[in-house]
Write a structure and sequence with these properties.
With about 600 residues, the protein is α/β, with parallel strands linked by helices. It has a domain at about 145-350. About 35% of the residues lie in helices and about 10% in strands. The strands form 4 sheets. It has a 7-stranded mixed sheet with strand order 1-10-9-8-11-12-13, sandwiched between helices. Helix 7 (about 200-215) packs across helix 18 and helix 13 packs across helix 17. The two termini are about 25 Å apart. Keywords: Cell wall biogenesis/degradation, Glycoprotein, Glycosyltransferase, Golgi apparatus, Transferase. Its main location: Golgi. It holds the Pfam family XG_FTase.
Length: about 600
């Protein structure tokens, strides 16, 4: 995007002091000065009014807080960019320009802080600065928001406020649960989410559970474990999505595939039946709650709940507890009773997580400060940002040399980075381009637990120039060596890097990585996926492929035979579902 930059006028402080001190010594009468000033005021307004106009984007000082808007500054005549840095933001670093926000568009971007109606305006901005500011760092969404989805979200927010924690209705529902009763005609129904696996999995399953809540008129409540505290702001105005600590069924160790409260096990033991007319079953005859174990088991989602008859029966339960490690939103599109409603909410099928993720997940001020400072210190002034996310799974380790070679093959084949030249002096034209500021600067952001990829790529562009005279700067915010699911500090860094990766113009990611899925879906960018080698090999013949969609992949497809008791390949039946590029048996929503 072309960037128009504004300059802040210089304040002639020294001259003002001299004039102020010279009024008495010069013998000029103050009333004469006042008359002269009033006569020249219209002329001063004509000369300087355009420079202080309201459309100018506010500049920021080195002491600007996290509440300040992204500033726009003039592009320097010549730039020197290092080969990169991995470290923390320098203390006292002066914020720099957001290159994808120009002075001419800043006002319109600011006015669209609600993302076309996706976000509610009923929040205090200072309580969660990322809610209305994080998208200033991204390109505009390529997916228009459905007015029906916006209306659905506002309706849900009112419902959540009416039935959420702290209300009389919530206390009444909890009292029924403690008593072991499932009341008829309950005014409020709930789905309680419990965490499973790492941060990427959790964000995908929270979004899926929220979509399920929208479709089934349930209030979403979230069990926030210690490692997840302080990561996200509250998404619903006037209420909380955090499950209170005194919730009677608050023991995650009871939630497993063999739990008797599991819907699948209730069917096996005939506690509930899906082969009868559900309308004839009174809610009061059912247990106080039902547990959905929507987790991978032998590469299939374990609870067979995506059939109409099952959903009608599940709708009788006032309390539902759900645990999942999968992005099961595509399975909801395969449930016949939900299809019409989902078509109105998402005319573009591949925008499901793109919209829901940007609605739900807003880093707290602490995490947002990490994101903003790093971006403004290292990424703001570059012409293009390229993200590499590399994940090595312990169950299928790959040698560093093999993974690095595959990444470099992808870079060369897709021309993601400029070619290297010889270590001689650059050509005259390249020198001239760099000198007058026209030479492009590309930033490579590496998200990986290991530092080796950063060291190798940084070394390449540090030791050799590029053929076209472009500058390549390489950055890596952290390298933790091991994934630490239960560490709050680790999860803060992970969330910050997901957001930084989502600000990139191009993304290359490892196959199967939920971390990468979240980042590119936030960005609305179709990534290049580094294919996973066969189980009996350590190399892949194909380096990478371009994703057909910005939707995440559901790794384990559901069993959709329902009463027919047979498995169905829905990718061959539904026009908006495909198998994933990186997981051959997985499912992904896309737009043809």
């Amino acid at each position: 995007m072309d960037v128009k930059r504004s300059r802040s006028p210089r304040a002639p402080a020294e001259d003002d002091k001299k004039r102020a001190g010279g009024w008495r010594s010069s013998g000029v009468r103050p009333e004469m000065v006042l008359v002269g000033f009033l006569l020249t005021l219209p002329l001063l307004f004509l000369v300087f009014g355009g420079r202080w106009g309201s459309s100018s984007f506010p500049s920021s000082s080195s002491s600007s807080s996290a509440t300040s808007s992204p500033p726009v500054v003039s592009k320097p005549v010549a730039r020197h960019v290092d080969a990169g840095d991995r470290g923390a933001t320098p203390q006292g670093q002066k914020p720099v320009a957001l290159k994808n926000v120009s002075a001419s568009t800043a006002t319109s971007v600011s006015q669209d802080k609600l993302l076309g109606g996706l976000l509610s305006a009923a929040f205090d901005e200072s309580s969660c600065q990322s809610r209305y500011k994080s998208n200033l760092y991204r390109k505009p969404s390529p997916f228009p928001l459905s007015p029906y989805l916006a209306q659905k979200l506002r309706k849900y927010e009112a419902y959540h406020k009416k039935c959420g924690p702290g209300t009389k209705r919530y206390r009444r529902a909890v009292k029924q649960l403690k008593a072991g009763r499932n009341a008829d005609n309950s005014e409020c129904k709930y789905v309680v989410w419990f965490p499973c696996n790492g941060l990427g999995n959790r964000m995908l399953t929270i979004a899926s559970t929220f979509l399920y809540a929208l479709l089934t008129d349930r209030v979403l409540l979230m069990h926030v474990s210690a490692e997840q505290e302080g990561l996200f702001c509250e998404p619903f105005p006037g209420s909380s999505w955090v499950l209170p600590g005194n919730f009677p069924q608050n023991n995650p160790h009871k939630l497993h595939i063999g739990a008797p409260e599991s819907y699948a096990n209730m069917l096996k033991s005939n506690v509930v039946r899906n082969d009868v007319d559900p309308s004839s079953v009174p809610a009061s005859s059912l247990p106080a709650y039902v547990y959905l174990h929507v987790e991978q088991f032998q590469l299939k989602l374990s609870d067979n709940v995506f059939c109409d008859e099952d959903q009608v029966m599940l709708g009788k339960f006032n309390w539902m507890i759900l645990k999942s490690d999968s992005y099961f939103a595509p399975a909801l599109f395969l449930t016949p009773m939900f299809e019409a409603e989902l078509a109105k909410m998402f005319p573009q099928k591949e925008a499901v997580f793109h919209h829901l993720g940007r609605y739900l997940f807003h880093p707290t001020n602490r995490v947002w400060g990490i994101i903003r400072r790093y971006y403004e210190a290292y990424l703001a002034r570059v012409d293009e940002k390229i993200g590499f996310q590399i994940r090595i799974f312990p169950e299928k380790p790959i040698k560093f040399e093999n993974m690095y070679d595959q990444l470099m093959r992808c870079v060369r084949e897709q021309r993601l980075l400029p070619e290297l030249g010889t270590a001689e002096l650059p050509t005259t034209n390249a020198t001239a381009d760099a000198g007058n500021g026209n030479g492009k600067v590309r930033a490579v952001l590496i998200a990986s637990l290991y530092s080796g990829y950063y060291e190798k790529i940084r070394g390449m562009y540090y030791e050799s120039p590029t053929k076209n005279g472009e500058i390549v700067a390489v950055f890596q915010p952290s390298h933790e060596e091991q994934q630490q699911y239960t560490s709050n500090e680790h999860n803060q860094k992970a969330l910050a890097e997901i957001y930084l990766l989502s600000y990139c113009d191009k993304i290359t990611m490892s196959a199967w990585s939920t971390f990468g899925y979240v980042a590119y879906s936030f960005a609305g960018v179709k990534p290049w996926i580094l294919l996973r080698p066969d189980w009996n090999r350590e190399t892949s013949d194909v380096a990478c492929v371009r994703s057909t969609s910005v939707e995440p992949c559901l790794h384990s497809s559901p069993i959709l035979g329902c009463r027919a008791k047979r498995d169905v390949d829905v990718a061959a039946v539904k026009p908006y579902v495909r198998h994933c590029e990186d997981v051959g048996f997985g499912l992904k929503l896309f737009d043809s």
